[in-house]
Amino acid sequence: MVRLSSEILALAVGLLPQLVQGAGLNTAAVAKGKLYFGTATDNPELTDTAYVTQLNNTDDFGQITPGNSQKWDTIEPTQNTFSYTKGDVIANLAKANGQKLRCHNLVWHSQLPSWVTSGTWTNATLLAAMKNHITNVVTHYKGDCYAWDVVNEALNEDGSYRESIWYTTIGPAYLPIAFATAAAADPNVKLYYNDYNIEYSGSKATGALNIVKLIQSYGVKIDGVGLQGHFIVGSTPSQSSQASTMAAYTALGVEVAITELDIRMTLPSTDALLAQQKTDYSGTVAACVATKNCVGVTIWDWTDKYSWVPSTFSGQGAACPWDENYVKKPAYTGILTALGGTATSSTTTSAVSSTSSTSTTTSSGSSATGVAHWGQCGGSGWTGGKTCASGYTCTYFNDYYSQCL
Ligand SMILES: *[C@@H]1O[C@H](CO)[C@@H](O)[C@H](O)[C@H]1NC(C)=O
Ligand SMILES: *[C@@H]1O[C@H](CO)[C@@H](O)[C@H](O)[C@H]1NC(C)=O
Predict the structure, then answer these.
(1) Is 0.85 topped by the overall pTM?
(2) Between the CA of residue 330 and those of 13, 282, 318, 345, 359, what are the distances in Å?
(3) Cα separations in angstroms, 64 against 371, 383, 386
């Protein structure tokens, strides 16, 4: 891993659009039959032009998730007063870029306004407030979201229900009622249960399986289970463990997605930790690739610069596939390889490609039949295919990037 000097970095940021060359993570994921490879983002970082340039790169990201701006405290800070400004910024960005949006989230124990957590509730009044929130928010974003995380993190580590305001006031019925309310507001959006530490077998995964069964037992629709994937370098569950756990969910008739993937390490990062991180990312993504009904992978932001990890886990970080200077880490190649893409040497002579280990890439199998859906088909310096596969049109985005849509 070659570190960029600050002078080179300044030049590199100026040349950042050249980083979008080549077939990236999303292109490779789609070529593997997945719906997307995506990333979380958040409103404050959208003032960083270099950051947004890469966020906009649909060759890597065919999907985005708002990290915070659709949460309850942002959207309904006062009862029955809805504020969609921040969430709309990200929904509109996704729409303008042709990226899918995973909408996140409707019912959670955290990031709730005090009128919810400190209110005096009966079963009936809290159910009414919950349904009002869900109906308003799902209706507002109707047509924008591929999926909603309807209920987030309802379980304790031992698989029992978390003692949230929802559970203690309404009981487990809050789950099917939340899903039924969301389905009524938008019958077409995919409805997910989303949690962490349910990616490998154990009490908590059993709890998540039981949630799917509970919702189905009410005759209510649940479409998917979101496996967050907040992992630790060197103790990430194995590919086979993740694949067999995914199979347990899909056997219930739901799809799965990896929804918040990041793999943190104890700082400082070393070459050995970065190599292990590459292995861990690769195995996790490969588990999704191997699972027919795993629809896609979302990383919980793409750069260490804006990762939630250092502020949440003291002494830990470097969890994302790009470092804080927007240079691809070995993890990027690990993901791309797991997606069936091939890392090849860059043919450009820009400061970026000649001084960093960043390489442009081509996903296998796209050239014979034209560039696949979502693939790059033009832009300044682009030397790859310019003709799209049958049914897709090479669409100009800017001088640096055209895409088969
Ligand atoms: C990112 O994409 C949006 C929507 O397509 C566009 O308006 C914006 O100018 C792009 N920003 C950068 C920095 O490329
Ligand atoms: C609250 O009301 C719902 C809807 O009638 C019901 O399913 C649930 O069991 C009730 N919860 C409690 C704790 O009584």
Answers:
(1) no
(2) 20, 10, 12, 14, 11
(3) 23, 27, 26
DSSP state at residue 148: E
Residue 6: pLDDT over 50? no
Nearest CA to ligand 1 atom 14: 53
Buried b vs exposed e over 206-243: b needs ≥16 C-beta within 10 Å? ebbbebbebbbeeebbbbbbbbbbbbbbeebbebebbb
> CA-CA distance, 71 to 336, in Å (whole number)?
31
- Ligand located closest to 98 CA: 1
Residue 108 has pLDDT above 70, yes or no: yes
Centre of ligand 1 from the C-alpha of residue 137, in Å: 25
For residues 145 and 101, the answer to whether their CB atoms sit within 8 Å is yes
CB 380 within 8 A of CB 399: yes
Neighbours of 46 (CB within 10 A): 15
Which residue in this structure is represented by tokens 């790009």?
322
Digit-coded pLDDT (tens) for 45-69: 999 999 999 999 999 999 999 999 9
Pocket test for ligand 2, best of 131, 161, 169, 170 (most atoms within 8 A of CB): 170
Q: Where are the alpha helices (DSSP H) in 201-254?
A: 203-217, 239-250
In this predicted model, what pLDDT tens digit does every residue of 110-155 receive, in sequence order? Answer: 999 999 999 999 999 999 999 999 999 999 999 999 999 999 999 9
3-state secondary structure of 68: coil
Three-state SS letters, 162-215: CCCHHHHHHCCCHHHHHHHHHHHHCCCCEEEEEECCCCCCCHHHHHHHHHHHHH
For ligand 1, atom 4, the nearest C-alpha belongs to 96
